[in-house]
Design goal:
about 250 residues; 7-stranded parallel beta sheet; about 45% helix
Length: about 250
Amino acid sequence: MTEKAIALVTGGAQGIGYACAEALAEEGHRLILVDINKAGVDEAAKRLGGDTVGLVCDMGDPDQIGALFDTVEGDYGPVSVLVNNAGVAMPGDFLDYELETFQRVMDINLTGVFVATQRAARTMVAKGIEGAIVNMSSINAQVAIPAIPAYCASKGGVMQITKVAALALAPHNIRVNAVGPGSIDTEMMAGVNANPEALARVMSRTPLQRVGTAREIGDVVAFLASKKASYITGETIYVDGGRLGLNYTV
């Protein structure tokens, strides 16, 4: 019996990360869920069932990321699919935004993506694995919200590191892509969903006139990780209900 290919999903305890894990499990992968929330990731692994494993890691700490991959490779085997989903927003007023906060967001959302991508790719290259890496960007790689300066900067960086890694790893048949969600029904958007005026503003910029679901992101991630996307690399697919294509509202 052929062993299942391992897919590692960061930020996998809930929301988009968990939805990515569900979609990848349905494609036949063995799931390694990673999150800073131990209770949450343990529960998520239990819900997915089977041979799913939940592990704890701060994706803003390069040393912990290195130790994570050492553990996964030593105990379970090499990673064939990496989903860099872990991320934080940390909103605040631009003029008062603290450098420490800015750096923490960048550490998790961008530096962590680079470190994990590099570490996973080194093993893929060494073992001849034609793997797939999918990074979680955002429409805020292209547009911006003044209250989340670090988040916007980090997601623009994710878009670019996706392109760089795709070019660097193409000779090894390792594909690297990103997904850029728009407004998705997750905990990060709970405040907007609970405020009719705020939600109306979001819908005014959303041609499909609804909030997306986490599973709609997970399905695109699973597609990019699959052989169906075998000729796609270096791309960011925006799943935003048409927002980036909207010129103006009336």
